[in-house]
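Deliverable D4.2, example record:
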Amino acid sequence: MVEKQDYSQSELFSSDDNSGLYKPRVPKSSFFLRIRGYEKVMLLIMGLVLTSIISFSLGVEKGRRAAWVKNNTAVASGYTIQVATFKNKQLALRQAHALIKEGLTPMVFAKGDYIVLCVGKFSNQESAQPLLIQLQRTYAGCRIRRL
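Output generated by the structure prediction step:
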């Protein structure tokens, strides 16, 4: 004995007229389709700025690490004595030849618009101190500096 129910049960297959027709789904609009043109440009600019800041900071860190080799010792971990700085290259070379005649090993290199004249390579500042005292008699402004 089957009793009648007061509510209708929906069937798996309905007997509608449109049951055999394909009903296309309405696509949901994506995030980029909903934003305006100028907003897209602003998001693109902010993304580029953020990317360039991150790549710059990573490049700086890579540059710092490039100066170090294994065992945490710097590649150019030496010291030298800066004798003089010249604007004229010929004067710097003349002084370098004079230092060679005295038996010293000068180094001449450019730093911006100036030519820097240095003498010797030392592993620490204490080993450069005796030569610094000797050179200060001739060159008043000498100083010990890192290579």
